Amino acid sequence: MAPPSAAEIGPASGPDVILEAKRPIESSPNPQASPDHEEHQYLDLIRDILENGEHRPDRTGTGTYSLFAPPQLRFALSRPSSQPNAEPTPILPLLTTKRVFLRAVIAELLWFVAGCTSSKPLSDQGIKIWDGNGSREYLDSVGLSHREEGDLGPVYGFQWRHFGAEYVDARTDYTGQGVDQLADIMDKLKNKPYDRRIILSAWNPADLTKMALPPCHMFAQFYVSFARPGDKQAAHAEGKRPKGILHCILYQRSCDMGLGVPFNIASYALLTHMLAHVCDLIPGTFTHTMGDAHVYLDHVDALKVQLEREPKDFPELEISRQKGGSIDGWDVGDFVVKGYNPHKGIAMKMSCFKNGEYAEAEMLYGHAIQKNSSSPILYTNRANARLKLGKYNAVIDDCIRSIEVSKDNLKAYYFLAQAQFELHHPNEALTSAITAYNLCASSHTATSNAFSIATYVLKCKKAKWDLRERDRLRRRNALLNELETKLEQDRNTDFSDIEERQRAGEFGDIGAKEEKDLVKKAFEDKITELRNIFAIADPTNMALREVPDYLIDTISFEIMHDPVITKTGQSYERATIVEHLKRNPTDPLSRTPLVVGELRQNVALKKACDDFWEQNSGWAYDW
């Protein structure tokens, strides 16, 4: 039996909502969906994006076709039962034109509900969808190098169960901290079903920079409607007051139509079913509102195959738990999906960058640049791919072209610095890295790049210093060699003069030997004295010419004299942080609000700086 369309169920608004659906005229042992199957909404949107979408670069470095604010998708979550006076049968809008990884959908949803923020519990179940964003390389790349591998930060589950709590790490027990939004939702569904504030939000601006990935599906609202008086379809079997019908509407800011959206539809439909089950409500509808709905360039061919397929009936859902109870402690086995008979799966990759397919990403961006050569982001994203491929001269070309289009392009300068560094041009790399850092520090927009760029500036400065040191040593050795050669020449000239005087009869063999011994002794003394003078620059003393990282101010990148510490534990040179705060009252690295009055002298670091300056007061001023 085909499920009803959302239009047949009626609007999820007002007290007069009636849950009723038209029954299909006929059925078959192996039914195909009717032409008005709700899955066609999804397929039609895919077609619209492929035909009319704007080509846009993206964070992952792959490129997309995109539409903004497309028509909503709406799915029924139940259909009338074939049994008289029985409650409607729950159904799950699980797409059928390709197989959806249902076990992963359920496991991730329960992971959210549990408030978990580590990818490891999912990975241990064979669900690897969060492994990339929890990897050591990825966390380091977004400025979260202090986190242990797998710690995603205050992502979905944390916001659902502890909104507003101070995030520490994935191991901390947050019981009783923050707002438990799910508990609040269940209380209102049971006791205040007409409330217009039954909201679930994963979008917390204060926590965005702490997250491995900001939330894509970010805001849901729940709504309980009641059947009109006299309507029997949604009433209790006992003929008592009709049950409420639970509806959900989701706003999703970033919508990966190939991989993500089928997952998200099923996930929020399941969440609505769970809430309906524990609050003794009837599942009504799920409405999906999208912001940036996009198709990745490397998903186009696979989606064209999917568009050729006809949808099949959505499966029924049975929850094998007693109604009521808690939303906690559920298991994957509590969900029984019946009648899911999808078409074969279609392989769709995560973005090329996430898969490490940098050559393919480079090619895709090359095609995109041919179509739109005025987009600076296209050049920087291709530069990023080329960095991974070690094509450093090509990276420089892309970055320069990007800067020509957008002169304040932070990423272009950052990638440019990395390419110049790899080509052993530390002076140019330092200039580019400092430009990137200044653009980052002057921005009022929170960014996870500040720490990474600051670290790279220091790396470039040290490389520049090492280059100067190598040049100084080369010149030192050349000068020493030149002076020793001059002394040897003077000695040899004196020997020749003695031999000439011996031949002239001024003295015999014994006298000549005594004269030569005196010259030799004077030569050896001068060589010893010369080498002692140069010994202060010998490699054995070079350790004194290295600067520990903790002594360096991460704004000016100079050795500190008067270090102060912020409330986040970061130390800066007093003069430079005060000047920075006049322009932008935020910590340059953590991006948290900061004012001058919150600065405190770092006494221990001040002592270390003073000792260093006392021991290295000469050369350190040139560092």
Automatic annotation (TrEMBL):
GO terms for cellular component: cytosol; mitochondrion. GO terms for biological process: dTMP biosynthetic process; dTTP biosynthetic process; methylation; protein ubiquitination. Pathway: Pyrimidine metabolism; dTTP biosynthesis. It comes from the Eukaryota. Its EC number is 2.1.1.45, 5.2.1.8. InterPro entries: Thymidate_synth/dCMP_Mease, Thymidate_synth/dCMP_Mease_dom, Thymidate_synth/dCMP_Mease_sf, Thymidylate_synthase, Thymidylate_synthase_AS, TPR-like_helical_dom_sf, TPR_rpt, Ubox_domain. Keywords: Isomerase, Methyltransferase, Nucleotide biosynthesis, Rotamase, Transferase. It catalyses: dUMP + (6R)-5,10-methylene-5,6,7,8-tetrahydrofolate = 7,8-dihydrofolate + dTMP. The keyword Nucleus does not apply. The active site is at residue 216. PROSITE patterns: THYMIDYLATE_SYNTHASE, U_BOX. Residues 546-619 form the U-box domain. Residues 1-38 are annotated as: Disordered. GO terms for molecular function: peptidyl-prolyl cis-trans isomerase activity; thymidylate synthase activity; ubiquitin-protein transferase activity. Belongs to the thymidylate synthase family. Homodimer. This is Thymidylate synthase. It comes from Venturia inaequalis.
